Every structure is written in C-alpha cells, then in structure tokens.
Amino acid sequence: MGYETKCDVRVVDADGSVRRGANATVLLETDELIVRGEARVRLPRADIREVTRRGGTVIIASPAARVTLTLDADAGATWLRKLREAPKQLIDKLDVKPGAKVWALGVSDEPLLAQLAERTPKLSTGRMPANVDVAFVQVSRAADLPRIATASTAIVPAGAIWVVHPKGPTGVADTTIFAEAKRLGLTYTKVARVSATESAEKLVWPRAARRTK
C-alpha cells in the first residue's frame, strides 16, 4: 500500500490550465503519484523532475503537470522525503525473504515472477510443493477461489498466502476473498499493489491455529 494523505491540491497542466481540489486524496505508489477528486491527475514517478518545499507547501514538477500540495510543515517534510527517496521494490513489500520457499499458483504477472525468481532460487510454479514459506495464488474469477484452500495446505504454520486479483468491478472483490479466508480460518493482515491493474491480499494462520498445524 502506498503513502496517502488528504490536502488541498493545485494542478497546473502543461497547457497552462489550472485545476484545484479541496481536501483531495493524494496517494504515492511505487511507480506513480495519484491525485483523486476535482484535481485528478496521475504522474509516473519516473517523470517527476523536481520536488521542492516551502514550509508545508510541496511542489512536484513534471513535463505533464505541476502539482502543489498544501500541508502543514511536518507533513510537508515527510512528503518531500517520500518523493525524493528511491521507491521500495514490490518484492520487499511482499515480505519475501532471500532463500524463502515460494509457490506461485496460476500467477501471470511477469514482473512479479521475475522479482520472485531474483529473490529466491526456491520458486516453484508447477505442482504443489510442501512446507512453503509464501504462496502466491491468482484469483481472477470466482472459480479460482478454491486455490486459496489449496495454498493453505501447502504453507508452513507461520507461512503466508498472497491472493493476487484484478482491481475494479470486473475482478473478484476483496470482500469475497476475506469471506473465503474467514471460512478457512485464515486472517487478513496486509494489502499490496502489484501493478496498475492488480492488487494482492495477504492471508496467514492466526497464532492460536499455528500450534495445531
């Protein structure tokens, strides 16, 4: 999940047109800055050329637009640091340790698979292995939901399952995933943005249940 705040936003497009948003939602993701509301804009982080701060005012400049966030001084300092630091890699957000035993079931996201293969030599994409530290399962439609139960039998007691699913109305809703997790006795702990079109929910066994596994 990215870094998020609500504040007044002013956006000046490359053609000089101005948009303002009162109490707009601003979200900093791994690869883009998103402003929602009346001042709606999406800026790839790779296109951000300069970030400056005057008190609580943070100014983000790119070829497409100039975005001004009106914050207090502390929040302004935090946003300046967040915008200037190197984005955290997806693999680090997914809590996959070097050398972990990982199973990817039906996952088609090539950048995700590439990062998993780089992080650990113990990545399996075929038949279900035993004693898996982290399982990734693709749930693109309701018919894929049984994959969560399958993965739950493969992970070690302290292991984790990441359920990768499409965003938006055409995908499987996170509430549907949570309901299936609850039915199986699993607990939801975290969400991560996999890409512009996919998200992932982290499921684990509750500590009390691990003692019986």
What does this structure look like?
It is a single chain. With 213 residues, this protein is of the alpha+beta class. The chain contains six helices and 13 strands. The chain has two domains: 3-84, PH-domain like, CATH 2.30.29.30; 90-210, Rossmann fold (3-Layer(aba) Sandwich), CATH 3.40.50. Strands 4-3-2-1-7-6-5 form a seven-stranded antiparallel β-sheet, covered by helices on one side. It is elongated, with a radius of gyration of 20 Å. The mean pLDDT is 93.
Major pleated sheet: 7 strands, antiparallel
Q: What's the end-to-end separation, in Å?
A: 30 Å
The CATH architecture designation of the largest domain is: 3-Layer(aba) Sandwich
**In total, how many beta strands?**
13
The strand order across the widest sheet is 4-3-2-1-7-6-5
Low-confidence stretches: none
Instruction: List the domain count as a whole number.
Output: 2
CATH structural class of the largest domain = Alpha Beta
The percentage of residues in β strands lies in: 35-45%
* Helical content band: 10-25%
Order of helices and strands: EEEEEEEHHEHEEHEHEEH
The coarse overall form would be: elongated
Mean pLDDT: 93
Counting helices, strands and paired strands, the structural category is alpha+beta
What CATH calls the topology of the largest domain is Rossmann fold
Radius of gyration: 20 Å
Number of helices: 6
CATH superfamily of the largest domain: Vaccinia Virus protein VP39
What features would you highlight for this structure?
single chain, alpha+beta, PH-domain like, Rossmann fold, 7-stranded antiparallel sheet, 6 helices, elongated
